[in-house]
Amino acid sequence: MTEKMLKKREYLRGLSQTAETMAEGTDQEETTVNNKLMKFIYNPKNNLEFRSFKKWKEQGFTVRKGQKAFLLWGQPLENNKNSKDKDKKNEELNEEEGSKFFPVAYVFSSDQVHKIKKKETVTQ
Length: 124
What we know:
Blueprint: H1 3-23, H2 33-42, E1 50-51, H3 53-58, E2 61-63, E3 70-73, E4 77-78, H4 88-97, E5 100-101, E6 104-109, E7 113-115
Antiparallel strand pairs: 1-6, 2-7, 3-6, 4-5
Helix pairs in contact: 1-2
C-alpha cells in the first residue's frame, strides 16, 4: 500500500471518529459508519445521493471536471493468507485491524454530476 493511500485511510479514520462522536445520542447512533459519515460530515453540504463514478456513468451522468471524491469505507475483504498478490503492508494492516480489510471507496454526490447530453444524429 502506498504512503498516499495510507494517508487517505488515516484521514478517513479521523472523519469516522468525528462522525461517531456526532452521532452519539441521536437516532443515527446504531447505523453504519458510512451512514454517519454521509449524514454528519458530507450531507451538511447538500449532498443528497452518493454513488461511485461507474454507477453514475451507468445512470447516464458524468462527474463535473475538477470534482474531488468523497471517501467512504468499501466492502470488507476477507484476509486470505494464501493470496500471492498481497503485499507485506496489507498483511500487517489486516493483523492490526482484525481478519477483515476495509478498502477506501471513492464516491461522488448528486451535486457533483451532470446528465450526459446525447449527440443528435443527422439523417439525410
